[in-house]
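Hey, sorry to bother you again with one of my protein questions. I've been puzzling over a protein and I'd love to understand its fold better. Take your time with it, there's no hurry, and the full record follows here:
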Amino acid sequence: MSGHSKWATIKHKKGAADAKRGQMFTKLIKEISIAARMGGGDPEGNPRLRTAIIKARGANMPKDNIDRAIKKGTGELEGVNYEELTYEAYAPGGIAVLIEVLTDNKNRAAADVRNILTRAGGSLATAGAVSRLFKRKGIITFDGEKYTEDQIMEAALEGGAEDVALSDGVIEVTTAPEDFEAVVNALADFESMSAEISMVPEAEVDLDNDSAGKIMRLIDKLEENDDVQSVYSNAGFPEGFEAE
């Protein structure tokens, strides 16, 4: 089966070696808290919370951290109220970028995102201009040195996965959002590198190494911002491209 994108492979490969990914826990805690605030603290009756917990477990977050985040969301523990925002943008070369934000200060987040884009030669887009280029999909990744593609594929397809692909040592399983949880459960015997609902581009724009480096640096800057939860793009990174 063919994969849709090399982006997740590069992102997770890079993330495994990047000490700054400790910041991921902060972002996961915010997502769990807002999911619990909006839909209640029982994951059985709150699909968004279930998905956030699956993602946190995929990142090896301790159960105590997850429980505290839920309690902050439901008000059992004191917490911060976050707003959800999505910014649509163009990076240099017309690359489409979706930026998902959870913030306690909307004005600060907007100013920060705009500043990061402007410095990199990008700009904000009108509502709908970029989001129409993406589809929401479940993405689960596994270490290709630990498991074979056939091992993962057999279990994934039984669970209802759409696609399984091996690229640069990472096995990527793609699902429809409504099948994500069933596929995660079907793959429970395998240790995942990540499990999340992502925005996947319908088509990619192929980049050379120089342009790829510029786009990756912009994405890094956005992801380093505390208010930014997720960044998605339709950048087609070259074979063998190494994130700095």
